[in-house]
Design a protein that fits this description.
Elements lengths: L2 H14 L3 H20 L9 H13 L4 H20 L26 H8 L7 H16 L3 H5 L6 E2 L4 E6 L2 E6 L2 H18 L19 H14 L8 H14 L4 H8 L4 H22 L4
Antiparallel strand pairs: 1-2, 2-3
Length: 293
Amino acid sequence: MNQYVTKFTDFLVNDKKLSDNTLQSYRRDIEQYMSYTNSNNLDFKDANKTSIITYLMYLQKQGKATSTISRNLASIRSFYQYMVRTKVVEEDPTEGLESPKMEKRLPKVLSVSEVNLLLEQPKCVDLKGYRDKAMLEMLYATGIRVSELINLEVSDVDVEMGFVKCRSLHKERVIPMGSSACAALSAYLKEARNAMIHSDKETALFINTNGGRLTRQGFWKIIKQYKNQAKISMDITPHTLRHSFATHLVENGADLHAIQEMLGHSDISSTQIYAQLANNKLKEIYQKTHPRA
């Protein structure tokens, strides 16, 4: 290995204390870059901005993902910053270069019929069925995060008024709940929760089989179970119901700012992605149904 690459990786190990995976990524990126410069008869010390851009374009032609190219630039930048610091080169050729913009991946959402199918899976024939039905109905009805769901206290919900208080990052928001969610939650509180807790001092809304607060990992298993039971082919994560909640609201004409408030987004740009999803669906419907599309 090139002596400069060796010194750089030693620096990463001793000074930066990087994890082994991160270290290997840096090493691999720099080795590939040095191999490229050598094969093109270019001394890395003489590289300029054009040289770096040419290399990034080379990676693009090789079919590398935008995220990979962006990571390569970050690795090369760190390498040259170290070279400047150790006075091997005078200037950093990556200075001022911006990473390629990452394409925002649109979230995957369930159709309304798939949501209905999923929500029909928990059967209120035992304690777990009552709990799971209430959780899934509540997630889709409110769009709250799973971390917020499992942190709810009994006092955070008002079934009669139909709302839930949700706390996230020291902020509190109040979200309305529909009749289906209220009915499922009411049945859980009446028929199951008191039988599941081991102590009257327990304040958590949703309880695990050991009588304590349900965990995030526990919920992952639950939603995977019902996804398989419903024979839904799409991979579902706990966040899928949140994405579906927002997208279905947009499709039915809800105001983006109202959705932003319910989701707890600090920036409207985070919410606008659901409008894009809805527009994509409208375009697809148009292309399938208009005679001259």
